[in-house]
Amino acid sequence: MRSQLILVEGVPLSDIIAPHWQEIHNFQARPGDVLIATYPKSGTTWLQEMVEMIRHNGDLEKCQQAPIYERIPFIELLQCMPPDAETVNALPSPRYLKTHLPYQLVPSSFWDHNCKVIYLARNARDAATSYYHFDHIAKLHPEPGSWDQYLQRFMSGNVGWGSWYDHVKGFWEEKDKHDMLYLFYEDIKQDPASEIRKIIRFLGKDLPDATIEKIVHCTSFSQMKKNAMANYSTFPKEILDQSQQTFMRKGQVGDWKNLFTVRQNELFEEDYRKKMNQTTLKFKVSI
Ligand code: A3P
Question: Which ligand 1 atom minimizes the distance to the CA of 39?
Fold first, then answer.
């Protein structure tokens, strides 16, 4: 069974999430909580695993005690599957949490308590490509249809969690008003150690170079792909059917070139310029 999208405050959300909007909106963040915020398919799980390795000072065993979605709960899913709200409430501080909500829908308690936020953005073409593949296996969203249809939906923001353009700009424009670190997938891919150092500093920690090297290694695509506590292989199959394709797909920058036709790329670029012309936010589309 496929879910449909329902507009919540103008943003399309899966109909397994939308009915719980009031509880999500009222989520009670606590001082010290750290929020990982991303548009879907931007490398959220990658960042989560890095943050976990940093939290545990590079101790992989400690990171393997539970699947990543239990170690860093997803606030939109607390009413749908474990860990539930009560479990998350009982977690000791500081809690590490994940959301895909756009800036304007983030529960205000995160801002009220001046929580640290790590935002990770990925270039639109690769995000759209990854999302298209993901929506084949993610039952919480409608069938993706053809790539051409999907690309139109992506460009108009008619996909789960809405417009990529509004999402990345929303956090970018507001980042200086909050305790927020804004990162890019492409930068982590290019120089993971340097981006991991930024996260370590942001979280107020200090780790030796050898630990940073270990974190780079353990969070590489090849290591995470075979790590059952990081690769979503334990996730409920009713929501994520990985029989045809796995969650850990390619993990590359520029895979969009295998999907976009020349014409689609031209139309995408024309539309992109219109939507992104007022912002200073710039992305790499290849490295
Ligand atoms: P692809 O579909 O392009 O392979 P999210 O966690 O936000 O859903 O993002 C998933 C995307 O991040 C997928 O992209 C996935 O393969 C990629 N990813 C996950 N772990 C990664 C890693 N260690 N290095 C690079 N990319 C990773």
Answer: 7
- The per-residue pLDDT for range 207-252, each reduced to its tens digit, is 999 999 999 999 999 999 999 999 999 999 999 999 999 999 999 9
Q: Is 101 in the pocket of ligand 1 (CB under 6 A)?
A: no
Q: Is 251 close to ligand 1, i.e. is its CB under 6 Å away?
A: yes
- 118 CA to middle of ligand 1, Å? 17
Q: For the chain, how many residues are written? A: 287
Angle between helices 209-218 and 44-55 (to 10 degrees): 140
183 pLDDT higher than 90: yes
Fold of the CATH domain 5-276: Rossmann fold (3.40.50)
The amino acid at residue 250 is K
Task: Indicate the pTM of the whole model.
Answer: 0.98
pLDDT given for residue 287 in this prediction: 86
Q: Domain boundaries in the chain?
A: 5-276
Type of residue numbered 286: S
Q: Locate 90 and state its tokens.
A: 């009982």
CB 40 within 8 A of CB 160: yes
Strands, E assignment, the chain: 5-8, 11-14, 34-38, 96-99, 116-121, 180-184
Which ipTM value was assigned to this complex?
Answer: 0.99
Is residue 217 annotated as a catalytic residue, yes or no? no
How many CB atoms sit inside 10 A of residue 223's CB? 15
